[in-house]
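Batch manifest line 287
LIGAND: FE2/S2 (inorganic) cluster
JOB: complex structure
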Amino acid sequence: MVKIKEVARRRPANPYLPRPVEILAIKDETPDVRTYTLRLRDGAPFTFMPGQFNMVSVLGVGEAPISFSSNPESREALDRGIFQHTIRAVGNVTKALARLQAGEQFWVRGPYGTGWPRDLARRDLTIIAGGIGLAPLRPVILQKLEEKGGRLEILYGARTPGDMIFRDEFPDWEARGARLLLTVDRVPEGENWPHRVGLVTNWLQEMEVRPEQGSVFICGPEIMMKYVVRGLTERNWRPQRIFVSLERRMECGIKICGRCQIDSEYVCQDGPVFSHAVVKDLLGTDL
Ligand SMILES: Cc1cc2nc3c(=O)[nH]c(=O)nc-3n(C[C@H](O)[C@H](O)[C@H](O)COP(=O)(O)OP(=O)(O)OC[C@H]3O[C@@H](n4cnc5c(N)ncnc54)[C@H](O)[C@@H]3O)c2cc1C
Ligand code: FES
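JOB STATUS: finished
ARTIFACT:
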């Protein structure tokens, strides 16, 4: 087995150069979200931290930041350099990616940015995600299920049951000890949905992880994160124990162009994962 230190040592000299990746498999998560299983064309090892992202490009179309959605410590990752991206087709690059098939290629440069804090992830943890926001948190979930340290609860909301990503994995996550709180905005007529209906903020009172023991990692639409953070603060959660992953439009991904800048912070390099203690100062008390 290739060790993580060994992988890091073998990284290419220039991490800013796009490298071609082969699409090994594609899984449809929802009508507009797919998970791509990937490996560098040159077969070189590739590693990253949960929460980091790649700048993903399709030649002649453009580039977009995309988080990793797989476990960097899985056997396939360590032995074969395999990683995954889960991508919603919304615009130029992501729609071009949606037209690709297994066996074809696109380009990546990275990994970039900060990760979710590993030490806190090992303790009691609540993950709160909305829609595609579960993708950057799946690596944390998969690592934690392997390690079995601290309790894990996942409060996940989507527009409808059909918009939930990784839905086929939920029974396995629960069987391995995760507590799942699922909620949707609405249930289409005729669909059986035995879980909750309403915004994730409606269910914060069901959290069992306590502010004095645990941490909360949040990813989703900014308006959702804003109200979740507000609700947590009302429940005595300290900003140092709340982490959010921010989205900003990006160009360089490496703190040169300034496109992603909020005051003194660059989301591409100082983030995208920020403690609420930092974000609060950047964006006022709104988030
Ligand atoms: C750190 C990070 C990680 C991310 N991880 C993921 C991930 O794992 N999976 C995923 O699916 N997405 C992820 N995203 C979001 C993704 O990068 C964006 O959706 C990106 O815009 C897609 O690129 P595109 O070329 O396909 O879409 P674009 O062509 O950029 O369009 C995307 C959307 O933005 C609108 N838009 C276009 N131009 C502008 C503009 N100038 N100003 C405002 N809005 C505009 C479009 O109308 C469209 O609705 C991540 C973003 C960040 C910052
Ligand atoms: S994307 Fe260029 S500085 Fe962040």
